[in-house]
Write a structure and sequence with these properties.
Blueprint: E1 3-7, E2 11-12, E3 18-25, E4 35-41, E5 48-54, E6 59-61, E7 69-74, E8 79-84, E9 93-99, E10 102-103, E11 107-111
Parallel strand pairs: 2-11
Antiparallel strand pairs: 1-3, 3-8, 4-5, 4-9, 5-6, 7-8, 9-10, 9-11
Length: about 110
C-alpha cells in the first residue's frame, strides 16, 4: 500500500523559501510511469496544482509559479521535495503530495510577518 507523508516547517516569513518533503512508502519513486505531484489549497479557495516530478526525474511546473518553484527527488531516501522561493502571505495553504488519486494528509504552511 502506497503511503505519502509530507513534512516541513509550518510557519514562514515573507521572502523566505518554503521547503517540503514527501516521504514515500510502499512504492519506489522510480517506478515506471509514476508521476509525483505537489498540490496546494489556500484557505477558502480551490486546489492548485503546482508541479510534478516523473519517474525518470523530469519536472513540470504550473506556469504562474514556475519562476519560484523547484521539485527534486532523493531516490536513496525514496522521497521528493518542493521548494518555493520568495513566499508571500498568498502562499499560505495546505500543501499535499499526490500520486494518482492517493494523497498525503497535507501540511499547513502559513506565511506571516
Amino acid at each position: 500500500q502506497v503511503q505519502l507523508q509530507e513534512s516541513g516547517p509550518g510557519l514562514l516569513k515573507p521572502s523566505q523559501t518554503l521547503s517540503l518533503t514527501c516521504a514515500v512508502s510502499g512504492a519506489s519513486i522510480t517506478t515506471a510511469y509514476f508521476h509525483w505531484s505537489w498540490i496546494r489549497q489556500p484557505p477558502g479557495k480551490g486546489l492548485e496544482w503546482m508541479g510534478v516530478i516523473t519517474y525518470d526525474g523530469s519536472t513540470y511546473y504550473r506556469p504562474a509559479l514556475k519562476s519560484r518553484t523547484s521539485i527534486s527527488r532523493d531516490t536513496s531516501k525514496n522521497q521528493f521535495s518542493l521548494q518555493l522561493s520568495s513566499v508571500t502571505p498568498e502562499d499560505t495553504a495546505v500543501y499535499y503530495c499526490v500520486i494518482g488519486d492517493l494523497w498525503g494528509q497535507g501540511t499547513q504552511v502559513t506565511v506571516s510577518s
